[in-house]
Amino acid sequence: MSENSCSFRNEKERRDGQVEGVSAGYSPPCDKDNSALLAFRGIPISELKNHSILRALTVEANGWQPGVVNTEVLRAQEEWEAVDSIHPETGSQASSEQPGHLVSFSEALQHFQTVDLSSFKKRIQPTIRRTGLAALRHCLFGPPKLHQDLREERDLVLTIAQCGLDSQDPMHGRVLQTIYKKLTGSKFDCALHGDHWEDLGFQGANPATDLRGAGFLALLHLLYLVMDSKTLLMAQEIFRLSRHHIQQFPFCVMSVNITRITIQALREECLSRECNRQQKVIPVVNSFYAATFLRLAHIWRTQHKTISDSGFVLKDLEAWAKKSPRRLLKTLEIYLAGVSKGQASLLGAQKCSRPRAPHSKDLTFTGVCDLPPNSPQATWLI
């Protein structure tokens, strides 16, 4: 450090009388290279900008006066002054109504168990109506009826399927944010409306418009899929398949259709035998949904399906799933057992030698509820 710098510092010390407060009673020699650094030891960073010595060095040294300050300097100054106001774990896009932490499936389910759903419950039809020979055949050869003590749990599932997405409900927002973060790996919250939802496989900027026929149950199923460590791997595999350059499909819309199939299987009592065996409804419904989604992904990849095949694939999948629910659930058990053993992807590598298909935006996704009523492939879920 030069003698002029030492003299300047000593002059400032005499003017402000703050040398003891700055260096805690220690005045290092002027000939030390690190003397200026030692002088500021113990001063918080946020206080440096208010210290008289620092102001003197930046304003009055050598008679320099600030001139016109450009926008970059102003921006840097604003960021510096904001240091004190930064709080950890708040997130730049988080809000009090939509906390940044993830929500579990059980927490979201508990929310619906505690709120008043009476207006939605009035709309449900727990079982489909059968008449004539269909009713007789079902009575003689059909699956058993659901146990009486499980019907309230079944009705809760069907009631949630009648609830829409409410952007004013903080829990609804947290469920959406959790799904987005787990699929994309993002650490930050996102807007509840925007083009980023199309990246997840919704057909528009508002996810609520794609929940027709499945309601909020469709989002709960996605939440279940991404919040379990085993099924998360499956969700990520299917998500990657949905973004394949040839076999692409809208991931979330496809999931909604799988939820529709699950609802119909529950109403047709196809799951009653398994529910009675496990003495539970919601875990069986969740597993049936995951197993059906897994089978769809396997068919989609191995049979080289594209988005133009969606309606017919879903129709065949629905018929097979309702006919063989136990076999379907066993397939999921095998997959999850393989995941727990650390096996490689059970979906396998995505290879396709067929010509490139048109981009998904040039085609219309056909779900099980979108087939024309006069088509032999048409089906009605709710």
TrEMBL record:
| Biological processes, Gene Ontology terms | auditory receptor cell development; cilium assembly; cytoskeleton organization; gene expression; protein transport; sensory perception of sound; stereocilium maintenance
- Which portions of the sequence form the region Disordered? 1-27
Pfam families per record: ELMO_CED12 (PF04727)
Q: Which PROSITE patterns match?
A: ELMO (PS51335)
Domain ELMO: residue ranges: 171-325
Q: Where is the composition biased (Basic and acidic residues)?
A: 9-18
InterPro entries tied to this protein? ELMO_dom, ELMO_domain-containing
Q: Which GO terms describe its cellular component?
A: cilium; Golgi apparatus
Protein name, per record: ELMO domain containing 3
Q: State the organism named in the record.
A: Sus scrofa
Organismal lineage: Eukaryota, Metazoa, Chordata, Craniata, Vertebrata
